[in-house]
Backbone:
């Protein structure tokens, strides 16, 4: 019961995020704060998503209903809501130099949403009963993809707040204009990133670590130290820490895949020389 309530909490976060973007934003008046709160709601849904399965297993209340409910909730919070954020962010006035045709924008957002749907459907079919033995994913998990899009949205609003003097005491004056220029690039780049994430979610070649299961399986001092250090950074500078973490996670699998291919090619070259 408690686990299902947590799953419902995840779905409610996604619904509220979508409702905020559907009823609140006035894009012609500048960046609407509703987009930022919608992004934060995706992270709140992520917390519910991390807790529901573990609560169900610890209380012995796992069920087929809970698994299907979890998939539907993820589809709302990590599929539909991020796609709508990308759609609305790209319509901001600052995007005009990078503006995509409306039909291309819709295609990119739909591609992300379909990638999330297929990713979640495959995970539901292939999911193992004991998630602690599940140490990696085929393709980036939908919360990871949604987290990157949401974190860049939060980072965009953080950079836009640099016009407030009390928020920029630690920023060198020479950095302010480049950071403002970088902020204006984010809404224009989000649709392309969403398209890449849509493919990455359904890729069979890329393997992504199940971070929580890896941590619980190790439980070493180093692992706890990394977690504590990350939590400190997350509390102190969440707007900067979140996009860095999710971007590193996105790149981790392609980098490892490329490194493995280079090692294999080098080993084959050495074998040929012998």
Residues:
């Amino acid at each position: 019961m408690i686990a299902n309530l947590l799953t419902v909490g995840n779905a409610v976060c996604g619904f509220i995020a979508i409702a905020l973007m559907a009823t609140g934003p006035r894009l012609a008046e500048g960046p609407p704060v509703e987009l930022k709160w919608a992004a934060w709601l995706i992270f709140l849904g992520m917390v519910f998503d991390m807790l529901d399965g573990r609560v169900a297993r610890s209380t012995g209340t796992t069920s087929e209903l809970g698994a299907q409910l979890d998939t539907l909730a993820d589809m709302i919070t990590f599929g539909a809501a991020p796609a709508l954020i990308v759609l609305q962010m790209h319509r901001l006035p600052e995007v005009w130099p990078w503006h995509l045709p409306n039909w291309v924008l819709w295609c990119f957002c739909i591609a992300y949403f379909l990638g999330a749907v297929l990713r979640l459907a495959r995970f539901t079919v292939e999911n193992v009963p004991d998630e602690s033995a599940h140490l990696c994913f085929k393709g980036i998990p939908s919360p990871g993809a949604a987290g990157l899009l949401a974190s860049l949205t939060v980072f965009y609003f953080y950079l836009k707040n640099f016009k407030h003097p009390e928020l920029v005491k630690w920023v060198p004056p020479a950095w302010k204009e480049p950071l403002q220029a970088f902020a204006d690039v984010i809404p224009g780049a989000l649709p392309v990133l969403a398209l890449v994430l849509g493919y990455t979610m359904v890729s069979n070649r890329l393997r992504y670590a199940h971070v929580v299961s890896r941590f619980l399986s190790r439980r070493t001092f180093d692992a706890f130290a990394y977690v504590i250090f990350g939590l400190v950074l997350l509390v102190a500078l969440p707007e900067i820490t979140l996009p860095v973490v999710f971007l590193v996670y996105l790149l981790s699998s392609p980098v490892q895949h490329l490194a493995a291919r280079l090692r294999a090619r080098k080993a084959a070259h050495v074998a040929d020389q012998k």
Summary: The mean pLDDT is 81.
